[in-house]
Amino acid sequence: MNYVIIIAGGVGNRLGAKVPKQFVEVLGKPIIAYTMEHFQNHPEIDGIELVCVDGFQEHLKGIAQKYGITKVLKIVKGGSEYERSIMNGVAGLEGIAKPDDVIMIHWSASPFINEEMITDNIRVCKDNGNAITASYSYLLYGTNDGDCAKKNINRETFMTLSAPQSFLYKVITDIYKQVEGKSMLDYVEHHTPAIMEELGIPMYFSKGSHANIKITTQEDLDLFLGYLLAQQYKREHKL
């Protein structure tokens, strides 16, 4: 079985909206509804768990019902920070997921995901125990040395990591046992790839896209609006 945990636990201060960014509407539909639809429509996804910022659980339940997201298994409360929200989501699958099931983690404000990326993420996870959506960089990078860059960074030496990020259930539960046992959140950046690095776990790449961004700023919101209008134009003109 393949399950996805959609993290909707943030408040999105940088976007400056009156509601958490995942609930901001674009063309009359909340961002999170677009995100959920990708997993609802994917034939390999068996269930969806939503991790929600406290106080918005009923609102999120209503969105799922309105847009026909029938794969939702449960809605659990978000944590005090991002990684705690994931841990709450993983804990919420106890008694549901089996050791070799795929647990996919995705951001609610990342609606640019597509079927091909989801499929490849599942494949890589089943083969290797984990899968991190990744893409090569086409931009140039330099070091941040105050108001200048003193060195170039070889873009061939790194990958841009995004979501979804998947793990076999037995792998992710073991990771979080170690996190708690070693109090790792006291000294490691609160992101799963940083925890994997600390534990010496290789991150296996699955197919990504430079379009697969997380909506964080107003500019990102404008990009998503443009993307939706482009898709609408293609459908209307059968392109």
Spell out the key features of this protein:
7-stranded mixed sheet, alpha/beta, two-stranded antiparallel sheet, 21% strand, 239 residues, globular, single chain
Summary of the model, kept short:
36% of the residues lie in helices and 21% in strands. With 239 residues, it is an alpha/beta fold. Strands 5-4-1-6-10-7-11 form a seven-stranded mixed beta sheet, sandwiched between helices. Strands 2-3 form a two-stranded antiparallel ribbon. A two-stranded antiparallel ribbon has the order 8-9.
> What is the first-to-last residue Cα distance?
35 Å
Shape type: globular
Give the DSSP E fraction (strand runs of 2 or more residues). 15-25%
Question: Could you tell me the radius of gyration in angstroms?
Answer: 18 Å
Order of helices and strands: EEEHEHEHEHEEEEHHEH
Q: Quick check: average pLDDT?
A: 94
What is the oligomer described by this structure? single chain
Question: Biggest sheet, strands in spatial order?
Answer: 5-4-1-6-10-7-11
Largest β sheet strand count, sense and barrel closure: 7 strands, mixed
- Which structural class should the secondary elements be placed in? alpha/beta
Helix content: 25-40%
- Poorly predicted sequence stretches spanning 5 or more consecutive residues: none
Query: What is the number of beta strands?
Result: 11
In DSSP terms (H or I, runs of 4 or more residues), the helix count works out at 7
